[in-house]
Write a structure and sequence with these properties.
This protein is α+β, with helices and mostly antiparallel strands. Helices cover 39% and strands 22% of the residues. The strands form three sheets. A five-stranded mixed beta sheet has the order 5-6-1-7-8. The longest helix has 21 residues. The radius of gyration is 23 Å and the shape is globular. GO terms for molecular function: damaged DNA binding; DNA-directed DNA polymerase activity; magnesium ion binding.
């Protein structure tokens, strides 16, 4: 019998900040770029549950979050506390949490900094797996003063959906016989791979819910949506044979920043590039990796048109000078007609390294 659990930390970045700064207890918190009194140009990384009550959520423009905060303040509610991310602190806390999880499970797949899958099949029963979930939550609360939500099911898909079912501080167990009914309690967009575009395409075919998907057989779904039909047939019924990948290895190290004003001033853009290159290289030297082989940049213009360029080096390196030189070579064409014939102003710059060893 397969028993898979998924742990998802609750509003992780914001919760760490609240834990470290007791004066923030109970206040709405948004971790992200500086809102600059509504003129900021980044986005919200994480919002705690108090901030979510104002309509603030991750990926929301920071300027919008600031205006929502001001509206709440006018109604006599506390304003949102905006905090710049402290990735070093979040990574350290994540490592301690994953250590706790690994003390209860032999196979753990770290999906991101604040979530992981782990295999509890050896417990032999969902009742015993639930007790382990309770123990993990309790230990995280005691040692790290944070809450987590855990989902337990017969596969990764169901466990992932279950962990989100009773947030925050939830524990949801879905038995094999309950899977199909449980899937009906979720929105169509909860199925991995169904984004806004796919959801719209399905709706045009009269498929707007998971119940609609479950009502169709494999052949009907294949006729309706092509090759994706079998995938949707299985996922709508909570079927998932994906294995756990025991080790999670960062695929890249990256940083990006939105300029305060759209610009094509070379000095400003190159200055930001060097700053971001320094931040990426610092994170690389603090990691367990010793070389990288691919460098890349992201450029976002006014109007939000975004382009990326990468270069794979002939030989893996850890040389900072070479890293900065290669990123500069990738960037310079965007300052002239080679990559920017319409001379559009630049809004955002991003830097990354990949193929880490």
């Amino acid at each position: 019998m397969r028993i898979i659990a998924h742990i998802d930390m609750d509003a992780f970045f914001a919760s760490v900040e609240e834990r470290n700064k007791p004066r923030l207890n109970g206040l709405p918190i948004a971790v992200g770029s500086d809102p600059q009194d509504g003129k900021g140009r980044g986005v919200v990384s994480t919002a705690n549950y108090a901030a979510r009550e104002y309509g603030i959520h991750s990926a929301l423009p920071i300027s919008t979050a600031w205006f929502l905060s001001e509206e709440a303040r006018k109604c006599g509610k506390p304003g949102v506390v905006f905090i710049t991310p402290n990735m070093h602190e979040y990574e350290e806390t994540s490592a301690k949490i994953m250590e706790i999880v690994r003390s209860y499970a032999n196979v753990v797949e770290e999906a991101s900094i604040d979530e992981a899958y782990f295999d509890l099949s050896k417990t032999g029963s969902f009742a015993k797996a639930q007790k382990i979930g309770e123990a993990i939550k309790k230990e995280i609360g005691k040692k790290e003063a944070l809450t987590a939500s855990i989902g337990i099911g017969p596969n990764k898909l169901v466990a992932k959906l279950a962990s989100d079912f009773q947030k925050p501080d939830g524990l949801t167990v879905v038995l094999p016989k309950e899977v199909r009914a449980f899937m009906l309690k979720n929105k169509l967009r909860k199925i991995p791979g169904i984004g806004p575009k796919t959801a719209d395409e399905l709706l045009e075919r009269g498929i707007g819910t998971i119940a609609d998907l479950q009502a169709l057989d494999r052949f009907e779904l294949e006729l309706a949506v092509g090759k994706q039909g079998l995938y949707l047939y299985e996922k709508a019924r909570g079927m998932d044979e994906a294995p756990l990948i025991e080790e999670w290895i960062a695929k890249s190290i990256s940083e990006q920043e939105t300029l305060q004003h759209d610009t094509l001033v070379g000095e400003t853009i190159i200055g930001l590039l060097r700053k971001l290159s320094g931040q990426v290289y610092a994170r690389f030297t603090q990691s367990d990796f010793v070389t990288f082989k691919t460098v890349g940049i992201t450029v976002r213009f006014e109007g939000f048109e975004t382009k990326t360029r990468v270069k794979t080096l002939p030989v893996a390196t850890n040389d900072r000078t070479q890293f900065e030189f290669e990123t500069l070579k990738l960037l310079l064409p965007f300052l002239d007609a080679r990559e920017n014939p319409k001379r559009k102003a630049i809004r955002l710059i991003g830097i990354k390294i990949e193929k880490l060893e």
